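Task 17 of the worksheet. Students: predict the tertiary structure of the chain below and write it out as structure tokens. Keep your answer in the requested format; marks are given for formatting as well as content.
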Amino acid sequence: MQIEIKIDDQYDDLKILILANKMTDQVNEIFNKLSETHPIVLTGFKEDCLEILKPEDVIRIYGENQKVIAQTDKNEYFLRLRLYEVEERLGKNGFVRISNSEIINLNKVVKMDMNLSGTICVRLVGNISTFASRRYVSKIKQALGIG
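Model answer:
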């Protein structure tokens, strides 16, 4: 089997092409692997019990005391993932990193208070307030389509 990657700016979207002289089990297996879609879920621990967390229920995920915590409107759960791993899983699903230690669900934002110093005060549902660091302001604006 040969693998070839061609980078060309004429393509707007990713295209995968499988070339073979006939349909084989290997071709079928590759096709099935590429076609698989996995539901995005997080597993959180609370009092030694594992719970499946739906991304739409998560308000924010943050690091504190060397632990990663997912906060919902009902509870806080410890995750056995690093923050960058959570960001990779949820990055394209309405979540954005706002600081080195926090990721928020944009669907849970009530308002963003932009002051002159370049920082953003983020108010989330449940009367939760947090701050975006200056380093991430452009990333937040890009996610919101304003910058």
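Marker's comment: The chain is about 20% helix and 35% strand. The mean pLDDT is 87.
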